[in-house]
Amino acid sequence: MRKIAIIGAGMSGMIAAIYAAQNHLQVVIFERLDRVGKKLLLTGNGKCNLSNESITTDNYITDSPKVLNSILTSFSREQEEQLFQNLGILTKVKNGCIYPVSNQASTVLDALRIRMKELSIEVKTESMITKITKKDDTYSLCDEFNKIYSGFSELLIATGGLAGVYQEHQKNGYPLLQSLGYKMIPSHPALVQTICSDKDLKVISGVRSDVVVTLFINGNEQGTERGELQITEKGLSGIAVFQLTRRMDELNKHNTKLRVDFLPALTQECMDSFVKKRYQQMHQRTLEEFMTGMIHKKLIFFFLRKKNWKLDEPVSKHTADELQSLLYMMKNYEFEVLDLNGYQNAQISTGGVALEQINPEDMSSKQDKHVYITGEALNVAGECGGYNLHFAMASGYLAGSSIARREWEKE
């Protein structure tokens, strides 16, 4: 019986193990943490956003959209549904996002663990693999305590990225993958809060607002997102910002700005007539009263402070053009990004093994057809909304199914 080694017990590693073991292969999973699937428990705020009804390459950032497209199209909606059925997971759809009916990530992990137990998959936790060698078409693995595991005919690396590993950057698969000669795309935290320079953030901390956010790096526009913005004492958070952090190269963080439109319903074309009409109606009111009903109360004080205007000043003290400049600021306010809020707070990390080095039909390495790489170890960074778990499942399914298929062909 062929023996298969899988390094990493996240979603992609466990899915690959299940599909390989279903063909009676001997599968051993090596996990550096004290239990499998720890990161899975945090997904979707504990509700486990498994996938999405609409998935294309546009939902991801990668070095090879062509390879990614082949992977995504090779894992059909029917195959995904069959995977859930085989695991006994009932799903539901909310705003296009696919969740377990239980609303609990823990039940998804339990279903995976139950299935792995049924298939007699051996799981070795607290096993950090630090070295891989190959001799006579078999692989040997060495852990951090110099214990050797040998006799593996196929090797799957599903060690994930850097998100959530805190200061233990050495305790992930990147050094291992580099030692095997793979081209690595530089990494940075993503789907994470930003740290900004504005000293008045404390004034508006806690504000949540539907906005449009545009990312600029070195003065060049890199992308725009609409969604909820959450303001913290240190910076910006919320889904609109999270999506854009995937494009924030850490090397350029000091030349990075987020332009926020706090009045997305008011177009630039309509602003002139809007201000004039509001000015005529409310010229006897105070500035605070003029802005009431437009934006969050904390933001009123924030923007008036930026203009050095007072809350109780009468509107009539200012011209319509001056008030228009105030609204222009509200639609185009720029926050300078100093940093991203660390791998320990990030949902994912960008970078990893360049996808161009992978065969999309089975996730095998182009430099060694008996080595497979899946999940976040690869340079694929998806949006919020189930896209990253979907890729983990797709890549794990393709790799595990391919390993099993090779056994069938031998028979």
What does this structure look like?
The structure is a single chain. The chain is an alpha+beta fold. The protein folds into two domains: 3-188 and 349-410, FAD/NAD(P)-binding domain; 193-341, no CATH class. It is built from twelve helices and 25 strands. Strands 14-19-18-15-16-17 form a six-stranded antiparallel sheet. The chain has a five-stranded parallel sheet with strand order 7-2-1-11-24, with helices on one face. The protein has a three-stranded antiparallel sheet with strand order 3-6-5. Strand 16 (220-231) and strand 17 (236-237) form a beta hairpin. Helix 1 packs parallel to helix 4 (105-118), helix 1 runs parallel beside helix 12 (387-410) and helix 8 (268-282) packs across helix 11 (320-331). It is elongated and about 85 Å long.
Question: What key phrases describe this protein's structure?
Answer:
26% strand; 2 domains; elongated; 31% helix; single chain; 411 residues; alpha+beta; FAD/NAD(P)-binding domain
